[in-house]
Amino acid sequence: MSLSVSVFAYDDNDEKFNIELDNGRDLAGFESSRYKLYGSELAENLGLKLLPQLKSHDLWDVGGEQLNELESELKTIIENLEAFSKESGFEQEYIKARVQNILDAVQIAREKKGIIVIW
């Protein structure tokens, strides 16, 4: 199984709809990324709060100010790419690509006044 990122927005009737991401841009990592990357001891030691929740459950309805927090946590991973690679066993390029997918989704959610789901 894979960990995915999705973006949802609301129409004029306040109905939620999915914003399709380009091919492969919805990939957030292998299922094991929940523990080895986003929920790792390193992530927690660096003060990440949202992403480590993926160890126990999906992240639903991340929007508003939480998008800023999510973006900050993702940038922390990028800034510490080598350390995350060593701890997780994932290649740096793999981590960078998956984190960039989520960062791109954050930008789309901001533009559309939407929300992010990582599941």
Please provide a written account of the structure.
The protein is an alpha+beta fold. The protein is built from 5 helices and 5 strands; from the N terminus they run E-E-E-H-H-E-H-H-H-E. Strands 1, 2, 3, 4 and 5 form a 5-stranded antiparallel β-sheet that branches. A hairpin with a 5-residue loop joins strand 1 (2-10) and strand 2. Helix 3 (65-79) runs antiparallel to helix 5. The longest helix is centred in the last third of the chain and has 21 residues, at 92-112. The model has no long low-confidence stretch (mean pLDDT 97).
Q: Regions with pLDDT < 50 over 5+ consecutive residues?
A: none
Distance between the termini: 11 Å
**Any idea what the shape is?**
globular
The run of helices and strands is EEEHHEHHHE
State Rg: 14 Å
Portion of residues in beta strands equals: 15-25%
The count of helical stretches stands at 5
Identify the notable features of this structure and list them briefly.
globular; 5-stranded antiparallel sheet; 119 residues; 5 helices; alpha+beta
How do the strands and helices of this protein lay out in sequence?
Layout: E1 2-10, E2 16-19, E3 27-30, H1 33-38, H2 41-45, E4 59-63, H3 65-79, H4 81-88, H5 92-112, E5 115-118
Antiparallel strand pairs: 1-2, 1-3, 1-5, 4-5
Helix pairs in contact: 3-5
Q: What's this entry about, in short?
A:
This protein has 119 residues and is α+β, with helices and mostly antiparallel strands. It is 46% helix and 22% strand.
